[in-house]
Amino acid sequence: MSQDEAEFAGFFAASWEPCLRAVAASTGNMTLAEEQTAEAFARAWASWHKLSRHPAPRAWVVRTALNAGASWWRRRSKETALTGDDIAAADSQGIGLDSALLTALRRLPARQREVIVLRVFLDLDIDTTARQLGIAPGTVRAHLSRAMTALRNELAPATTSEIER
Amino acid sequence: MSDDDYPDDSVLTQQLRDSLSHVATSERPPLAQITSRGRAHHRRRLAALAGFGGAGVAAGTALALGLTGALSTGALSTSGPGAHAGGAGTTRTTAAPAGSTGAGSKASAGTIQTAAFTLTGNANGTDTLVLTMKQVFDPAVFQQALAQHGIPALVKTGEFCTSSPAPANPAAIGVLSIQLPAGLPHKGKAMVATSAQPSSELIADTKTVIDPARIPTGTELFFGYSSSGHALFFDLIYPGSYSCSSDKPPMSRG
Question: Which chain A positions have a beta carbon within 8 Å of B17's beta carbon?
């Protein structure tokens, strides 16, 4: 095994699970997430000579995976209105994610969801998140703020009703 | 979260991260499967960078090689969905079939059709080659078509190249899967791919599935066209270490 292969093997072993989780949480479909994540890691290996020097290779993998699935989601969103909790609930059962949370995540605009994935799920700092998305740090903060507000509003009624019971 | 985020978000952030930790993940796939897929990506990208993305290159090559007819704009290019280059030219490229652009498939391989062969990208990353060879077989066009489909190959006419020591027979390791035309055995040619003696030649009307992901690292396919028998000899060679001869090598190797 060459040094490159050994490095990539280490990265793959350590990063598969967190990347898959982030992709699954974003897409809500584990089967699709597995395929997209595998594809992203394959592309990572194809570009490993560059990616090995990348400041946030996991973010690259997750973004590549989500981009790979973007067309799939565009097709699906045309076929099925993504407003029903039933869809998210059905999907979330397959990945073990709270259905209300999944529904809320899926209702976010794509850019806000990307910021959540990179900033919250992959724990990148604001500047790195901004570089990954090719936007200004201030824009990341704005997207993050709007996303968190939207998520809080989406999740609050359920929490409140549980308390009131 | 750092201090550049809103303090009120910390509870929600933790809730999101906790939820993520409950996501049930499956076992990670074998590394070899990922790297094999990655190598196929790499080959396709190299092929694209090698200059097969320009219609001008394809047209220039075709003219230099004396092809009859004119290549339409976009012929042998990596045309996007919906693109179609047909007309009176001898080479026609069509977009990949619907559903073939998913993960792991070829982004824009589509179908390349000439008088001598048809090469079609499949959704699973393989390619189906059907030979007709009813007209003069053009090695440069065939090599271009293979490269466009991410298949590294050297193609020659009247010459047969081999490496020593030779890599495995591509038919024996699944790089090529040959479906014989109806009515064979064909004039005594060693066409039948058996486990004991894999085929080393393709003849007209042979349908062959090529799996670029199975090409061993450091090797490429070789195709040598024999005009006398209208047959296409094939093998794997090491690109930096091979020799060619007008004599056809022994037919089969395990």
Answer: 120-121
Q: What is the pLDDT of residues B200-250, one digit of tens each?
A: 888 777 889 998 888 888 888 999 888 777 788 899 998 888 888 888 776
Q: Which residues have CB under 8 Å from B199's CB, separation 6+? A: B171, B178, B190, B191, B192, B193, B252
Q: Are B41 and A42 in contact (CB under 8 A)?
A: yes
pTM of the full predicted structure? 0.47
What domains are there in chain A, each with its CATH number? 3-164 (1.10.10.10)
Any residues with CB less than 8 A from the CB of B110 and at least 6 apart, and which? B79, B93, B94, B95, B96, B97, B120, B121
Hey, is the C-beta of B35 within 8 angstroms of any chain A C-beta? yes
Is the Cβ pair A144, B5 closer than 8 Å? Answer: yes
Q: Do A98 and B22 touch (CB under 8 A)?
A: yes
Q: ipTM surpassing 0.85, yes or no?
A: no
In chain B, the residue whose alpha carbon lies closest to the alpha carbon of A73 is: B102
Chain-chain contact of B16 with A151 (C-beta, under 8 angstroms): yes
